[in-house]
Amino acid sequence: MKQIITILIAVQFALAVKAQKQVSQAEMQQVYNEVKTPHKYGLVIVPDATDKKIDCPSVYKQGKYWYMTYVVFDGRGYETWLSRSKNLLDWTTLGRIMSFTDSTRWDGHQQAGYIALQDYEWGGSYKWQRYNKKNWLSYFGGKDRGYEAGPLAIGIAHSSKKITKSNEFERVDKPVLTHNDPDTRWWENKKLFKSSVIWDKAKTTGYPFVMYYNANGDSSNNTPKWRWFERIGMAGSHDMLKWERIGVDPVVHHKIGITGDGVIQKMGNLWVMFYFGAFWEDRKNETFNRFAVSYDLVNWTDWTGDDLIKSSEPYDAKYAHKSFVVKHKGVVYHYYCAVDKKDNRGIAMATSVDKGKSKVQFKASPTPPGEGLR
To answer: What is the 3-state secondary structure (H, E, C) of 95-109?
Structure first.
C-alpha cells in the first residue's frame, strides 16, 4: 500500500510539472485576441528593380522614428538594408547596413541580418538595446552565390555607430554556429537560417543571451523527398560571441514542412514566439504566420486556432509568412513577407485597427521562376 501511494504521488508530481510547462488554452486564447490583425493594409516596402526580392522584416524604434531592417536578394545573395518611418505605414529607404565585401570570406555572398537584444516587452519601447556600448546583429551567411546556396551558418556583427543611418556593421571573422560543429544536432546538419537573440537579464535558461534559430537537417523516414524541412531550436551565450547549444531537439517544430523565423516578445509572464509555418502535412501548398507561448523559454505550447496571417490578396497570393509584430498606441502592426503569383517579393503589413489601404505596388515584371522557395 505504501508503495502504491508513493507511485501515485510521483505520478501526480509529474503531471503537475507537465501542467506548469503547458500554457493553458485560456491564456493562449487571450494572446490570440491581443495579437490578431484582421485588416490587411497592403505592401509597404517593395524592390526598386524587378530582379530583386525583399524579405525578413525587423522593426525597432529610436527617438521619434521607427526603423526596419530587411534583406534584399539580387541574384548574387543577401544584403541587409534599413528603412525609416514616422507612422509605421510609410517607409523611406536609407541604405545598406551589411553589404557584399570580400567574396573569399565564409559569408562573402550571403549576409542576412536580424536585430538582436531588442526590448522584448509587448507594447514597450522596441528599443534596440546596446551591450558593451554596441548594437548587435545575428545573421546567416554563406560563401556561395545564389538563392540561399551552399552551406549557411550563423554569424554575429556589431556596431558602435548610429543605428538611425545606413552605417555598416562589423562582422566577427568566423561563424558562431555551423552545420558541422562537433555538437551539431540532428535537425540542423544541413543549413542554418534566421536567428533571433533576446537579452534575458533574469537568466531564465542560465544564459543572459538566448538565440532561437531555424535550420534544415535530417528527417524521419516518412518525409517526402520533395519538401523542405526546418525546425526551431535554441542556443545560449554569456558574451554574444561564444554560443552553446541548448538541448538536443528543436523546441518548436511540426511533423513535416517548415517551422521557422521565430521572434520573441513578452506579455506579462508569458513569452510569445511569432513564427511562420509552410508546407505542413495537411497544408502542403500553404504558408502562414502563427505563434507559440512559453512560461520558461524552453517549453512551448503551440497555438492551434486560426492563422495570424495567410494568403488572401493578390500581392501575397503565393506566400504570406515571416512575421514581425509590434504594438504601438493600442494598435498592433504585423509586418510580413508577401509573394505574389509572379514571384515578386516584398514586405506587407496588417493591423488590428483599419488603417486604410496602401498605394504601394510591385513593379510589373517578375524575376525568373524558381527563385524564392522559402
So the answer is: EEEECCCCCCCCCCC
- Using CA atoms in the order 119, 125, 128, 130, what is the torsion angle rounded to 10 degrees? -80
CA–CA separation, 148 and 275 (whole Å): 19
DSSP string, 133-164: TBEEEEEEEESS-STT-S--EEEEEEESS-TT
Distances (CA, A) of 20 to 23, 31, 248, 294, 311: 7, 17, 21, 10, 35
**Backbone angle region of 75, left / alpha / beta, with phi > 0 → left and psi within -120 to 50 → alpha:** left
Provide the residue type at 12 as one letter. Q
Q: Where are the domains of the chain?
A: 26-351
pLDDT mean values, one per 10 residues, the chain (374 residues): 43 43 96 98 95 96 97 95 98 96 87 97 98 97 90 97 96 96 93 97 98 85 60 98 97 93 97 96 91 98 98 97 98 98 97 97 67 57
CATH node for 26-351:
2.115.10.20
Q: Are the C-beta atoms of residues 347 and 315 closer than 8 Å to each other? A: no
Phi and psi at 28, nearest 5°, equal -60, -40
- Residues making up the chain, counted from first to last: 374
Nearest Cα neighbor of 136 from 67, 222, 204, 198 is 198
